[in-house]
Amino acid sequence: MTVQCCSCQKVRSPQGWRKPIKAELITKQVTHTYCPSCYSEARLFIEKWKKDNA
């Protein structure tokens, strides 16, 4: 199964996160998560939103 970042669309591989090859997204099942850098950005955004809307 291919793991893809829901924000930047990079895919996880044993060597790290990289740009996907179109064929691998067409021929395999794909699940989504955040890559480490997008996760950090999303977490900061959520924390700011929670603080502003408390």
Short structural summary:
43% of the residues lie in helices and 26% in strands.
How do the strands and helices of this protein lay out in sequence?
Blueprint (H helix, E strand, L loop, with lengths): L1 E4 L5 E3 L2 E3 L3 H6 L2 E4 L2 H17 L2
Parallel strand pairs: 1-4
Antiparallel strand pairs: 2-3
**What general form does the structure show?**
elongated
Low-confidence stretches: none
Provide the spatial order of strands within the biggest beta sheet.
1-4
* Distance between the amino and carboxyl termini: 39 Å
Q: Assess the beta-strand content as a share of residues.
A: 25-35%
What is Rg?
14 Å
Main pleated sheet: 2 strands, parallel
Along the chain, the helix and strand elements come as: EEEHEH
Number of strands: 4
Total domain units: 1
Mean pLDDT: 92
Number of helices: 2
Helix content: 40-55%
Briefly note the structural class of the backbone: alpha+beta
